[in-house]
Amino acid sequence: MTAVLWLRRDLRLHDLPALLAAHEGGQVLPVFVVDPALLATAGPVRRAHLVAALEDLRESTDRALVVRTGRPEEEVPRLVRESGAGSVHVSRETTPYGRRRDARVAAALGDVPLVATGTPYAVGPGVVRKADGDPYRVFTPFSRAWRDHGSPPPAPPPARLRWRRGVATEELPGADGPPTHAVGEAAARERWAEFLDTDLARYDTARDRPDLDATSQMSVHLKYGTIHPRTMLADVAAHPAGRTEAARRYVTELCWREFYADVLWHHPASAWSDLNDGLRSMAYEDPAGTPAAHVRAWEEGRTGYPFVDAAMRQLRETGWMHNRARMVVASFLVKDLHVWWPHGARHFLAHLADGDLASNNHGWQWVAGTGTDAAPYFRVFNPVSQGERFDPAGDYVRRHVPELAHVPGAAVHQPWRVPDGLAHGYPERIVDHAAERAEALRRYESARAA
DNA sequence: TCAATGTTGGC
DNA sequence: CCAACATTG
């Protein structure tokens, strides 16, 4: 009997042990349904990573992968008919849209079961709850309960899968260029081993430094499911430095990803609207209105604040941005340019190769002061002092902003104070941070009063 | 109070 | 034809 293996971006073969157990003797038809809307909203770098991930998936299925463009509720039943399959296997969906879509597919399949096993999380969303059964809304108690809950060991890699062949496939979608980070299962394993060898031990001190390349860079691999967080947790626990503060810190960062998935599970509307009502009457600028030039300058890295601009250019050019920089540029859009956070979240999701709805949008809500555990609204990141503190030699700025290559050291964070600092085309500041910080606080006070 | 695309159902 | 609705990250 044939089983359809309906693969999604964030779950790969080694995460479906139930399928393997059920089909030791059968044939497996691996399928990926391309959603045109998904490609349409992706910027060029994000698209390049998606296409490369599909190419890797095709290789890791011995080129048996069948690609179809269309609506899953039509394409999946069609593939079942074409192959005579008796079941369809998927990962358990965790986003609100995904859950609705899977319900439609299950209905369209009729008697053929849609079997959901596996999750791209160590502990599935919706599992960790308070004693009274309610979900957590604060990270720290969630992380304790999550740690105490524990997670199953990683599933063994698949063995003896027999691929079903002869079902027509489309060509993979094309991309404008190669991805900027290697994607695929081999690349994920390679980077993970390198991180454990070189960067885990210094993770707690170096992780906040965008100039040092000391983060794990595992986000894109988690996004595409080419490594499972249970594998990572087991490897950290078994590592010589597994009991250190640095390792604990890394596990906490993995827990943030699980926490935000859990929040989205319980509050689907929080993807694109304020989770907390407190700032409902906040006055924001319309990004399509007069200050549109400001938003475009932010997107293109021309705000005149070097740390912000380096980060925004890193995003567009490489499809990735250091987490410290993500917080600073988000604060700049929301509190210096007074733009509602979903505008920024959308831009991030279009360009980040690792962009994940739950982590990205709740991270934005955290900065904007509307989310779980949110930073209080009056806490405004200073783009200059953040740069001086976390890029102390200015290397990060010069790496991404060539117009400032001639400014040495930390002076690069305030080129307007350097003779000839703006001589090679770097722009003047589009706003005055101190004035806009005060303006943000004024708006916050009147929103609270309302 | 996301933006962009695709679908539907009125005429 | 096009406005309203649905869908995606």
The N- to C-terminal Cα distance equals: 64 Å
Cα shape: globular
CATH fold-level label of the largest domain: DNA Cyclobutane Dipyrimidine Photolyase, subunit A, domain 3
Query: Tally of extended strands?
Result: 6
- Structural Rg: 23 Å
- Name the beta content range: 5-15%
**Quaternary organisation:** single chain
**CATH class division of the largest domain:** Mainly Alpha
Q: Uncertain spans, ≥5 residues at pLDDT below 50? A: none
Number of domains: 3
Mean pLDDT: 92
Q: Which architecture of the largest domain does the CATH hierarchy give at level 2?
A: Orthogonal Bundle
Order of helices and strands: EHEHHEHEHEHEHHHHHHHHHHHHH
The CATH homologous superfamily of the largest domain is named DNA Cyclobutane Dipyrimidine Photolyase, subunit A, domain 3
Largest sheet: 6 strands, parallel
Helix coverage percent: 40-55%
**Number of H/I helices:** 19
Give a verbal description of the structure:
The chain is mainly alpha-helical. The chain has 3 domains: 2-119, HUPs (Rossmann fold, 3-Layer(aba) Sandwich); 122-153 and 184-266, Serine Threonine Protein Phosphatase 5, Tetratricopeptide repeat (Alpha Horseshoe); 277-449, DNA Cyclobutane Dipyrimidine Photolyase, subunit A, domain 3 (Orthogonal Bundle). 47% of the residues lie in helices and 6% in strands. Strands 1, 2, 3, 4, 5 and 6 form a 6-stranded parallel β-sheet that branches. Helix 13 (306-318) crosses helix 14 and helix 15 runs antiparallel to helix 16. The N and C termini lie far apart (64 Å). The structure holds a DNA duplex (11 and 9 nucleotides). Residues 1-125 form the Photolyase/cryptochrome alpha/beta domain. It holds the Pfam family DNA_photolyase. This is Deoxyribodipyrimidine photo-lyase.
